[in-house]
Amino acid sequence: MGAVSWQTSRRGTGFDHQAVFYRGLEGLRAQVVPYVRDGVRNGEQVLVAMVAGHVAEVERALGSDATRVDFADMAELGGNPACILPEWRRFVAEAAGDGPVRGVAEPVWSGRRDVEVEEALLHETLLDLAFAEGPQWQLLCPYDVGALPRHVVEEAARSHPTVIDGRTRSTAPGQPMRAEATRRFSEPLRQAPASAVTVPFGAQDLTALRGLVRRLTAEAPLARGTSEDLVLAAHELSTNSVVHGGGRGVLRTWQEQDAFVVEVQDEGRIDDPLVGRDMLPGLAENGRGIWMANQLCDLVQVRSGPSGTVVRLFAWL
Questions:
Q1: Which of 91, 102, 195, 308 could cysteine-pair with 39, CB 3.0–4.6 Å?
Q2: Do 47 and 176 belong together in one domain?
């Protein structure tokens, strides 16, 4: 699989969000290394965030140019995909004053849990919404088409305005990413299992609800401290339901093969698909609660539409 010529690839204004499809480590090097090296030689600030093995491949292939690149392990930075956006905001804000900026981000890789992939693909769509207004920079997102399921590759093609496949580049000018982000954000999650512990609650039930979550999580095989993190996150969300979601809600908990899950559902509607991904001044209370959940939990799913809002918390067993 050949590589596109990066020297002539940039649109020059705003946020240039590109997906590149490759096969195996050889294809990874062929597509990513010239892109990174082009940035280095242009004097740009460059951050490469991929899984550790891929970072090592790129760093080795860059040789001496690697000393002028920042690297991050995406499995740590973006284990919860909702935490990736704040890192890009920080990098762009800190680096933009020194000139052009570019990055490489691999939020999806072979072996990620299905629910993590689902959230990573939502994150990809939200990036264009988040950086619709702001400094010029470009981000390349590599996808291994030889290792990932077909539907994941197809979703990646839809969530990037520019797609590079070998030497072929296709761009959809003015692709309505806001509409796509809103559509995905409003899609319902898969149903909770029938065996889930289900508890309707109101304002008078919050203390008892907190005790119930503490007892159930304490019985699960979770890492030390994880139980209290889930208790705090669930309490923040159930309080939001009482204050902002119609005064009541429903809490569900269940255990999956590799996760303990807590879900809070209410009748409120959230219009901002970026909710809880940034801790910004003036953030609404419900946004702060979801932001806190993202800091405390291994994974958080948020969906909101005409029928209400569901927030689902995951702690890996």
A1: 102
A2: yes
